[in-house]
Structures are given as C-alpha cells and as structure tokens.
Fold these 4 entries.
Entry 1:
Amino acid sequence: MQMVMTNETADRDFDCLTPAVAGLGYIFGRPKAVAALCVITLSGLGWLYFALLLARLDASSNGTNSAVVQALCRPLAEGAWSAASIALVGSMWTAMALAMMLPSAAPMIWTYAGIAEAAARKRERIISPFALAAGYAIVWLGFSVIATLTQISFMQAALLDVNMAANGALFSGAIFIGAGAYQFSALKYACLNRCQNPFPFFFTNWATTRSGVFRLGLKQGLYCLGCCWAMMSVMFAVGVMNVVWMAALGAIMTIEKMLSGRRFTQAVGLVLIATGVSAVLMAVASHWPAQAG
C-alpha cells in the first residue's frame, strides 16, 4: 500500500512539473535514452574538436601538411619541450579517443542501459549510464596521456616527422606488422570476448551505487584498452591528424565488437600484416641499388 501511495505521489509530482523539466525527467529516467546521449555527445565532441582544429589549419602547397601543426610540433622534433605543442598533441589524442572509442563502446553501454531499464521497471535503484561512460572515458584519457608522451619521444628520436606521421616506410611497416600480429594474441581474444559479451559481466558484477557503476566502467574500459590499443597505435604510422584513417579504424573496432567470433579480427590482422610487410619490402627495395653500388 505504501509503494502504491509513493508511486501515485511521484506521478502527481511529475504532472506538476513544467513541460521542459518533465521532458528532461522523462529522458533521464530512461537509461537507454541516456546511453544514446552519452555516446552521441562525447564522440560528437571529439569529432567537433577535430573539425574546429582542421578549420584553423592552413594547408600547405602539397595539401597534406599544416603550417600550424608544423609550427607547434617542430620544437618537439628538435628536442625542445613546448607547453603549447604538448597541449596540442594531448588534446588531439584525447579527441581521438572520444571520437574513435566511444562509438565502439556503444554495444557495452547499451547492454548496461537495457539491464538498468528492466530494473527501473521493477522500481529498483539504478545508476545513470553517465557514470559507466565516465569510468570508461577515464581509462582512455589515461591512454591519451601515455600516447602523448610516446609521440613526444618518437618525435625527439626522429621516428616521426613534423606532421606527426611515421618518418619512413620501415618504421611505418613495423607498426602495421605489430598491430596485425596483436590481432592473433591470447590477450586480444580475452579482452575482445569481454567486449563482445558484456552481459555476463554486468549480470555478475551489478552495482547500484555511482562509485560501483563507475568501477564497472573502469573495468570495461580496461578490457577495451586491451582489445584496441594496438589498432590505435596505427595512427602513429599514418599520422595523428589523418581523419580518414581515424574514421576507418574507429569503424573497424566498432564492427569487431558487434560481431562474434574471431574471423573478422583475424582478417583485419592479416590485412595489417600484409600492409606492413609491403611497406617494409618497398623500403628495402628503395635502398637496394645504393647498397649494391
């Protein structure tokens, strides 16, 4: 009887709200709507940042270099630590993580939202998917910091040029081969299985506190990192600002998590290895005459 009265009171209070507030309550009271909002908003912010950044860049005559990027990143290549350069590289990796990884996490977040919505219909306590997405995003924010430091080290070692792409086909090929080989590793398969089948994880570890759901997001973020870090490293080979490769790799990682089994993962690995081997062979062939002479 008390539950009925409580529900009737809540419904009566809901009817007294303004249309705008009631509309927000309707959305945020439905986890699936919030999950979609999380993915669209956060990934959209990542792509928006890139669009704004690219709009500010002055393309050089060959259409691939950027005067602004060169001005900010050349100090790193020359061994100088510029705060502006480091901030730019860090912000780009953060935007890349949001733009590429949030869509790939959509199936996982949607699964959580489905379970939460079923619990909400039973009047059980649930936590917004925002907490889950926040934990997931924190992991990739940490990856962005590591990637930034790695890129700075590569640039100072002259492995990357001022356009933030691999300095030579040999290094580029090695990155592709490494990423392709990881597609066949046991760690890749273990993490991919968790990403492809999140329901058992949530069912076993269900939490009804913000900190608990945040930790679920952290764990899922770590599984995703273990699954996708090598694929993300391909950006070092093709250029951090290469939007076409960003979109392509993001789509591949999303498809990989939506499918079951290993065939697609293995096919991607073979393509990456073949691409890397081709780059290495071309690099060797280009120096062969000089060595013969």
Note: Residues 1-28, 59-65 have pLDDT under 50 and may be disordered.
Entry 2:
Amino acid sequence: MPDRRMVMRTRSTVTPAMIMRMATIIITIMALITITMITTTITTMITITAVTGITATPMLMTTNDPPPVDDRSGMNEAEAAALYRLLTWLSPAFPVGGFSYSSGIEWAVEAGDIQDRASLRDWLAAMLADGSGFCDAVFLAQAHRAVEADDDGALHGVAELAAAFVPSRERQLETSTQGRAFIEIARAAWHCDGLDQAVAQCGGAIVYPVAVGIVSAAHAIPLAPSLHAFLHALVSNWISAGARLVPLGQTDSQRVLAALEPEVAATAKRAIGATLDDLGSATFRVDLASLRHETQYTRLFRS
C-alpha cells in the first residue's frame, strides 16, 4: 500500500492559485473557439450572398430603417421626359392618321412587286436607304439643328425645300397632313416656349419629318434618338400597310421589322452627317408606285 504521508503530500501540491490559472486557460480556449465559429459563420454568409445574390443580414445588425433605394434607371429627369415624349409622339396610337397611308405600297402589291415577306423587306429597304426614308431623315436633322441654333432663315429654307421634294400629289397629301396633325396635337398637349415661333417661321405647309424635327428640338430632345424613333415609326407604318395588303401574319411582320434594324441605324447615321446637298433619291419604281396609286381602281389607303 502507498504511504499515507506521500498521498497527503501529493494532494497538498494542488493550490488554489493553480486552480484559478487552469480556469482562466479553459475560459480563454472556449472564447477562442466561439470567436472562430462566429467568424466562420459570417464568412460563409458573405460567400453565399456574393454567389447567389441573396442578402443575409445578421440579426444583431437589423434595424427598423427601410433599405436605401437603388436607382439603376440610368436616366435623369430630362432624359426620362424625352423618352416618354418620343414613345408617345411616334407611337402608332398618336393620332396623325399614319394608318391611312401606304406610301405607294398598295400599288406595288397590286403590280406584283411585293408578294411576300422577302419582297416586302427588299422594297422597304430601298425606300429607307435610297428613297424617301433617307430624304425625310435629312430634313428632320436639318430642321432640328435650325431650331437649336435659333436660325429662322435656315428653318424656313428647310421647310420650303422639304415641301417641294415629294414626288407625287398623294405623297404631298400624306406628309403634309401628318405634319399638320403632329404639330397641332403636340402643341395642344405638350406646348413649350419657342414652338409657336418656330412653326410660324416655316411660312407654309410643314411636312411630317420637319414637324418632328421642330417639336423635338423645341423640347430639347437630342437629335439622334429623335431620328431613330422617327425612322422606326416610319418603317413600322410601312410594314403595317404591307402586312394588310400582301397579307402577312404578325410574326412575319416582326421579322421584317427585325431585318430592317441595320438599315434604320445606317440611314440615321448617314442623315446625321449629311447636308441638304446630299439629298437625292434612286427609287424610281417607288415614285412610280406613288404616282400610279392616284388612279388605282381598288384602294384601301389614301396614298
């Protein structure tokens, strides 16, 4: 048996101070383990948030304040107003009567020049790039710049030349009627300073592209989006007429519109860099269609 005195001596070596140090060490180790677990949890939550986009908010940091609003529209107030007005003015719902006109497309269908989606696309591409589409885009750009520069003489000259540039009586009726309606409705609903003065300087009939150029410039809407919106509306109206005359379904109509997107962009770019000296048309068959439509026996459209 062990010596009783040795056992008593061994037990007496464990002092209260030693017990306190051991307790301190144990508490420190537990605190380190807790901190490590919290750090790991937060890191995992941040990783999940970065990967999935789900926001994980620790409960201790939650407040009653609403989250900040993240405005990612990318537009200021003036840009938003400009977009709103362009979408309205050049929408098929804007009451300028664009649905009543075919720009000679009705005769082209009657004559067999337009028979399907492909032939409609080719006909409209020529009208856009080498015919009235390009010329109208130039007139819009020049009218817009004249209003911006407050150049009444230049504006009068552009309006006069544009009114004389149409090749047929019915095209003259189409563009002047739409231009007058556009000015009257835009002035009644979105009147602004300087618009009446610009309209008065034209001194006569205001054709549709000049009207759009005047109104968009008076409202400080930049030229490039105004021109793109105008050409999109012009092509959309042509396609609408062709779809009813051929006829085409809605899907094929959208395919034609999609196929003409490069031509619209290219025509707008050319028109922005062009001058009045660059005006000209190489679409004799289109002009002939507009002339022949005046005496066409069966008609759905006014031009």
Note: The radius of gyration is 37 Å.
Entry 3:
Amino acid sequence: MPSFGRFARASPLGRPPPSLSPDIPMGRQRPSGPRGARRTKAPVAAPPLTSQTRTGASQEGQRASASDILVRIRGLRFRHGARIVFDGVDLDIRRGSVTAVMGPSGTGKTTLLKLISGQLRPDGGTVEVDGEPVHALSQSALFRLRRRMGMLFQSGALLTDLNVFDNVAYPLREHTDLRPAMVRKLVLLKLEAVGLRGARDLMPSELSGGMARRVALARAIALDPMMILYDEPFTGQDPISMGVLMTLIRQLNDASGLTSILVSHDVRETASIADYIYVIAQGKVMAQGTAAAIASETTPWVRQFMEGLPDGPVHFHYPAPALAQDLLTGGLG
C-alpha cells in the first residue's frame, strides 16, 4: 500500500504548511513521476554541441517541453454578453504541478475551469487537455476526458440526500462496474486519505464546512484522476480547516502524481503551496511565475492585489454615471 512521504516542502512565503499524519494510504499504487510521463532510458553522456547539432538539440528540448504540458491554452477569448472575460490569454499547466490562477472576484477564474472541462466553449483560441482540443471533442469523447478529471466545487456540492460514504461512492458506481466489496474498500481508502473514514455514516448536514470540503475532495479523487480542478477551496474556512486543506492538496498532488489547478483569491495560502502562479484580470494575464517572482512584481495592479491595498488601479466603485446625474434623473428606477 503506497503512502505519503514526509511533507517537507517549504513555503515560498516563509511559513511552512501545517503537517498531517505522515502516512496516508491511497487507493492504488502508482508509478513514480507525473501521470502520463513517458518512461525513458538511463541517460548517456551527450557529445558536445556543435553548430551542426545545436539546432537539433533545441528542437528536441522543445518537444520534451511540450510533452510536459498537460493543459495548453492559446489565444483564449471569451465573453459574457458585452463583458469581455478573456482576451487572448495564453496559459500552460505542467504535469505533476500545483498551478494557481489568482485574481479578484469576477475576473473569470471559475469560467476558466469550465472552459478547461468543456462546460463552456471559447469564442476564440484553443484549449487542449492532454493533447485533445476540448472544444472540438464529440460528446462521448468529452465525457471520457472528464472522467480523468476531478473537481472540487466552491461549495463542495455534496449530494444532500446521501451520506458521506455514498457521496464518495457515487462516481465509482456511476462510471465503473466494480463489485460492491471493491467500491467499499476504495471509498474507505479515499476517506482515510482526507482523515474522515470515521465520518462515513454522517449526512452532509452534520458536517462542518471544512469536513464537507474534505469529503468533496475524497469524491474528487475517487476515480484516480490525472488532474483535479479546485474552485476556491479555502473560501469560508477557519484557519485550522484551511491549513488542513492546504496540506491535503499538496500531499495528494505529490503522492499520486496528479496535476492540480487551483483558482483562488486567497493570496498567502495559495502562494504557499503553488509551484507556479498566474494572476489574471481585465481579460489578460497580469503576471506569472513562481511565488517568489510574483512577490517581487512591482506593477501597481499586481501589488494592489497581492497586498490587498484599498487604493490602486482596481477601483472601489463599479462603473456608473455621476451620482448627481443619477439622483436628478427622473423616474422610479
């Protein structure tokens, strides 16, 4: 039975995430390294680069880099009515990484997850997942791709008429032909991974907010996906629950070779576990890089968001006519 190793990742912001039990069993053994990575032969000594070999080596490096990308977004354009949500956005999500997409509320973070999972279609550009163009897939092909994705919804989205066990078992019963005894074992393993095996008979109404989010996470990993999409996982959580979720996201990603896309506006918590960060607003990528790189950004917009400053390029008031004009305009509104 595989288990998590020691959680030794240091926080980019200088605060180590809280630790959980050092050994949390998972559902089945996985090969080491990111899911989907090709096995390669043992490295051999390479000849020195010459003018004849330099171009070929560069092309080989580009191919290796391309194979390392699980989600590739190019020239993404999307709008809600007259409002432009994305205007030519490019993003790369690397296999085996925790990639954060951050920005203020209303900047399209959840919309991006819906575009990646095929719930929405872009107005322009391309969205590829594991080499497949999501918006061009047939319905059956899209459903097959979605079974390889896990989703942690912002509210948890547990089925209120089912207990904890049945919530986690639901995707296994829906998408597999496993025997009930095997479903039971897998569900107990997933609940053990999030520390809630003892809560399997509780109803969602009996769970705290943090517990409900952890049950939702157990359900998201039930089918051993290649990727998990996290929609604001820290919203409404107390500091202890938030610390537990932070650690679970990082540990599950590393132990299972997952790829995690985490959308959030919780700056400190997200930066402490992310390998790479995109900050988006006004339909564009405003900044990208590691947590250290984002922390050193000097552009006013990024500084206002990362430091939570009340004054800056992001205005308090939603665009509106002058107050005097509105007050003096006739009618009852």
Note: The chain is about 35% helix and 20% strand.
Entry 4:
Amino acid sequence: MALRLTARPATTVTKTGRGPGGAPARVATRSYRWWTPYLFMAPYLVLFTVFVLIPIGYGFWISLHQWDINVLAKPFVGLDNYRELFDPDSVAGPRFWTAMRATGIFTALSLPFLLVVPLFVALLMNGKFRGRNLYRAVYFAPYVLGVAVVGLLWRFLLDGNIGMVNHYLGVLGLPDDIQWTTSTPAAWWALVLVTVWWTLGFNSVIYLAGLQDIPAELYESARVDGANAWQRFRHVTLPGLKPVALFVVNATLLASANMFGQSYLITNGAPADETKTAIYLIAETGLGSFQMGSASAMSFVLALALMATSAVVFRVFRERQEKS
C-alpha cells in the first residue's frame, strides 16, 4: 500500500493495474489532511512550548519589572534593568561586566585545550590495540561525575595548605606553596585544568565518531600517493572532521561560557570576585539577593552575546568550507 501526503480531504482511491501474469491488480492510495504531520509533532511542540517558550517569555516579562520575590508589589520599570547594566555609575553594571570579563577569560583559556586535547585522545582511541575499550572508558569516566563531586574533590586536592597537588609538587622539587583557589592566575589555571580533565571525554567521543565516519579509502589513496602521517592528518582527517568540529566548537564555547559549578565550589569567585563568572553572578543576584528582575536582564544580555558568538562561529566555518 503506497501512502501519499497531500492537502486534500481524506479519501481512499483505488487504481487498476496489471499484476503477475497479466491479471488485474488494485493498488490503494490514501490522502491525508494537512494537519496530519502536525498531529505527530504535537507532543514535542507541547513540551517545547511549556518548557522553553513560556519560560523565555516569562523571564523577559520579569526583566521588565523590579521583581523582588520577598515583596508582593513588583512595579513595572520597563528597560531600566537593562540600562543599569550599561551604566558605569550603577551598582549592577560594573559587577556584571566584571563577571562577563571573567567568563571571557575562562572561555579563552579553556577552549583551545577542550578542542585540541580531546582530538589527540580520539586519535589514540581510534587505533587498534589491546585494551582499547578500557582506554576509552578511563578517559570518559570523569564526565559521568556530577559537578558537585568534581568541585569538592578538586577543592581539597588544590588546597594551598593541605592539598595533594602542592604536596606532590614539593616531592618533585617544584614550588609547593601555590594558592590554587585564592590567587590569580593560579585560580584560572586550576579551573581550566579541572574542567579539561572533567569534560574532555565527551568531546573525545564526538571526535571519535567523526573519525570513524571518514572512509578508509581516502587514507589508502593518500598512502599510495606517498603522504606521510602528518599529511594524511592535515589533508584527510581535518577536512573530514569539519562538520563534527563545528558542533564541538559551538557546544564547547557555550558550555564554557555557562561555567558556574567549578567557580562556585573550587574558588568561590575568589580572589575579589575575579573568578566569578556571569552565570555565578546571575545566580547570586537572583537567588541570593532576590533581585530576579536584574538577574533576568543579565541572563538575556548574556544570551544575546552567546547567540552573536555562535553566529560568528557558523560564519567562519561556512566561509572556510566555501574556500575549500
């Protein structure tokens, strides 16, 4: 039975043809109403509306009010919450842009490691050797841990007085008095290295899937042409990973810009709020100071910045793909 989707009323039409041996055969075709595809999409559309669209709209409505959850009156202030963020003489503005600067620093430091190190690990994972599955499991295992477990674990390991990291640095004859959680730039490197250790397994698995999707014939052709390992990596592996790389770059960029748990649990924003990221400040403003209007405005400004950054990433990849 052949199915044909059209916008005509639901009917059943019978056509006459020739079956095996020249005998007449009847083939039934059905036409469905225009709303049939939307009926199948309805469960997703309902969930998307309830859990995405409505919260976004409600959050924007909150950002237009002086919304203190402890006060019954919530006066409408229009765009005042947004103006305060761009006013250098306001209380919220300088703090917000300091937090945005911290977010940018963390993203700029962590992004190269989260792109290059997982790729190197994926190349090793893609090899054929004994214990390959165990090797893959070991590198992916930290990713299944929650941020609370990772944060508390490394907070004690990186403690400047009793931490195991400084202890083993002293054993190796290196400086053993580094304050990893209370001074910069040590605090930044602590956050970056912990994040790389925790999340590189996810990016490695994505890269591995991309590597396994590259046809083996391309590598064989490159070997026949006399290409060495570096040339095969440059001219076969990297071009084959472009679609995967776009996803990894964009996902890692967004995840790094939304970092909160590591800063909250390991450094507590120290020293002097230098490692307090934008998400940290938003949570502190909304849930700590109960100023939900200002926190919502910060959230939308951050979201717009991330959308613009993602658009730039897509444009760069598109231009490079067109050139190649």
Note: The chain has two domains: 1-34, 94-323.
